[in-house]
């Protein structure tokens, strides 16, 4: 029952949010709720952005083991960080305002993705070519980052390293509200396209037969995916496998192919998973490191499982 | 009515179709025949606007095909393609209901449901309506796809190898449906490999080889041993059994 899955995911999210806000709380509740509330909002926003972008990307590409990170987004993010440290030095990089860096990162990522789509899709609709170009693009960017990293002072490279892992410890408050607004707006636009996504899931030939201009629809949706990935990456750093973990769980429990259910369900599952894991990490295990280290490892295992499961028997 | 004039198409630097000029009239079942690689599926994809021609013009309903808005075209013309992605968990009834998407953008009216149910029944799929597509055989999936295309209820049907994976009884059923649609004044075009079936049901035959029209006309005129030998580079016999042509390679 799809509606039951949605209700259960909503309840799981509410329970994990409540635990995150209240578990081990001592002192001024007003301050505590504000402090923890901001972090909860960051976790939920990033979870929703990763979930929606992965699900839409997988529908367009017709491949449930791909994530937008395959298009080289994480590599681009790391290269931007490395280039900034390389050009400005560690202190110069640290003194940059969070907002300008955020705007620059988002603009560059959207521009790179647009260039990629125009270059590849301008030569006909070929999703395989797009994905392969994305992989090559990622390798190129990683090579460039490695080259610059070799030329950076080792002590300054610590700034690059610190910025290259997903973290929730130092999310800027102003950035958070911008990210929330973008994710809400893009999420609403994606949800409004739910029926069209159902048709796109049937592949290019059937979508065209049913009157959906496949190339145009896919390009527009890829823009929205880009925006979601750019915002979440710029906010908390690169996240590679978490989307895969969320989409695999969503398809498993949704019991439907309808995007009107899959989209909100994936966002709720992602947010619930992130918040519950962070609660466990911070409040129960009293660990200070980012929960993403564990979640990414888990996502990597899911990726391997999905790939191996598809091996012809 | 579909009219093609000087139609050509190339892919990867290789010419697939050369200077095709033909008319596909309303109220008739036109069958495209020819050896593998002759350009039949490519021609159908061009007519369905799944590919853009390299040269020439296609006119559909009196205006250039590219002038038709995609959504409006889907209410007037449908095409069964060989490449279709099967979404996990999609049932037969769900897929057939997608045929009504061009009419209501996914919001099904009682009339839509009635049409979808009739198409399920026409393809003998009512008992399988709640089965997930990925649990069905190739032939059952093919029937579900044909039912979806029929549910679009368009004036023009382009069918690329509709008999793929079908047994004799279901192949007969599909050809009867196509004949009925043609008799009702619709334009029906099908790519077929079984020449006996083509001779039995077609009003008009377009024979392609190496991207060119080699012969065109009623089945009796096209399906002669000499023409078929030229078309397929093989010796082919045409027998008359019970007044109907049976075409066999020697």
* Helix/strand structural class of chain A: mainly alpha
Specify the biggest β-sheet of chain B: 6 strands, mixed
CATH class of chain A: Mainly Alpha
The tally of structural domains of chain A comes to 1
Globular, elongated, flat, extended or rod-shaped: what is the shape of chain B? globular
CATH homologous superfamily heading of chain A: ABC transporter involved in vitamin B12 uptake, BtuC
Query: Cα distance, first to last residue of chain B?
Result: 37 Å
Q: Give the H and E element order of chain A.
A: HHHHHHHHHHHHH
What's the total count of β strands of chain B?
A: 12
> Low-confidence runs of chain B (pLDDT<50, min 5 residues)?
none
What report would you give on this structure?
The complex is a heterodimer of chains A (313) and B (250). Chain A is an all-alpha fold. Chain A has one domain: ABC transporter involved in vitamin B12 uptake, BtuC. Chain A has helices at 2-22, 29-61, 73-95, 98-121, 127-151, 154-163, 173-192, 194-200, 204-209, 214-236, 242-254, 259-284, 292-309. In chain A, helix 2 (29-61) crosses helix 12, helix 3 runs parallel beside helix 5 (127-151) and helix 7 (173-192) runs antiparallel to helix 10 (214-236). The radius of gyration of chain A is 20 Å and the shape is globular. The model of chain A has no long low-confidence stretch (mean pLDDT 82). Helix content of chain B is 35%, strand content 29%. Chain B has 10 helices and 12 strands. The longest helix of chain B has 16 residues, at 168-183. Classes of the chains: A mainly alpha (313), B alpha/beta (250). Chain A binds chain B through residues 62, 195-196, 198-199, 201-206, 208-213, 251, 255-257, and chain B through 48-50, 70-75, 78-81, 83-85, 87-90, 94, 98-99, 101-102, 105-106, 149, 152.
Keywords:
heterodimer, A: 313 residues, mainly alpha, ABC transporter involved in vitamin B12 uptake, BtuC, 13 helices, B: 250 residues, alpha/beta, six-stranded mixed β-sheet, globular
């Amino acid at each position: 029952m799809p509606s039951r899955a949605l209700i259960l995911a909503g309840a799981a999210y509410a329970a994990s949010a409540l635990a995150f806000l209240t578990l081990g709380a001592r002192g001024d509740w007003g301050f505590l709720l504000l402090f923890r509330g901001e972090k909860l909002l960051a976790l939920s926003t990033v979870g929703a952005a990763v979930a929606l972008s992965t699900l839409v990307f997988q529908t367009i590409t017709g491949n449930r083991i791909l994530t937008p990170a395959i298009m080289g987004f994480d590599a681009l993010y790391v290269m931007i960080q490395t280039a900034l440290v390389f050009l400005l030095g560690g202190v110069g990089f640290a003194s940059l305002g969070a907002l300008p860096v955020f705007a620059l990162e988002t603009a560059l990522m959207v521009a790179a993705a647009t260039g990629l789509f125009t270059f590849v899709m301008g030569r006909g609709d070929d999703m395989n070519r797009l994905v392969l170009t994305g992989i090559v693009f990622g390798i190129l960017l990683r090579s460039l980052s490695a080259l610059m990293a070799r030329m950076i002072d080792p002590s300054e490279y610590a700034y690059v390293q610190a910025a290259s892992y997903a973290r929730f410890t130092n999310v800027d408050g102003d950035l958070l509200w911008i990210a929330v607004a973008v994710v809400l707006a893009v999420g609403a636009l994606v949800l409004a396209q739910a029926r069209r996504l159902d048709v796109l899931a049937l592949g290019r030939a059937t979508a065209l037969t049913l009157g959906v201009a496949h190339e145009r629809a896919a390009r527009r949706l890829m823009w929205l995916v880009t925006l979601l990935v750019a915002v979440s990456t710029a906010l908390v750093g690169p996240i590679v496998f978490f989307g895969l973990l969320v989409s695999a769980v969503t398809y498993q429990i949704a019991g439907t192919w309808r995007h009107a259910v899959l989209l909100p369900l994936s966002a709720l599952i992602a947010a619930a998973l992130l918040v519950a894991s962070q609660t466990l990490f911070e409040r129960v295990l009293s660990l200070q490191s980012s929960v993403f280290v564990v979640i990414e490892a888990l996502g990597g295992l899911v990726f391997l499982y999905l790939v191996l499961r598809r091996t012809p028997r | 009515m579909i009219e093609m004039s000087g139609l050509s198409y190339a892919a990867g630097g290789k010419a697939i179709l050369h200077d095709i000029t033909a008319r596909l009239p309303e109220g008739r079942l036109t069958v495209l025949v020819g050896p593998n690689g002759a350009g039949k599926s490519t021609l159908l994809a061009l007519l369905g606007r799944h590919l853009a021609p390299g040269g020439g013009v296609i006119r559909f309903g009196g205006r250039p095909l590219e002038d038709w808005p995609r959504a409006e075209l889907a209410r007037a013309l449908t095409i069964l393609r060989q490449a279709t992605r099967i979404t996990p968990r999609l049932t037969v009834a769900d897929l057939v209901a997608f045929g009504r998407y061009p009419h209501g953008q996914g919001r099904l009216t009682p009339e839509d449901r009635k049409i979808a149910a009739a198409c399920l029944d026409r393809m003998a799929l009512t008992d399988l309506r709640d089965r997930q597509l990925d649990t069905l055989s190739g032939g059952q999936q093919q029937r579900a796809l044909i039912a979806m295309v029929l549910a679009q209820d368009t004036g023009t049907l382009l069918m690329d190898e509709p008999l793929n994976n079908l047994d004799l009884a279901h192949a007969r059923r599909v050809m009867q449906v196509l004949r009925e649609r043609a008799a009702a004044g619709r334009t029906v075009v099908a790519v077929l490999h079984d020449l006996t079936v083509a001779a039995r049901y077609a009003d008009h035959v377009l024979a392609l080889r190496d991207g060119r029209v080699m012969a065109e006309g009623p089945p009796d005129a096209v399906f002669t041993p000499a023409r078929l030998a030229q078309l397929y580079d093989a010796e082919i016999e045409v027998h008359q059994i019970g007044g109907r042509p049976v075409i066999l390679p020697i």
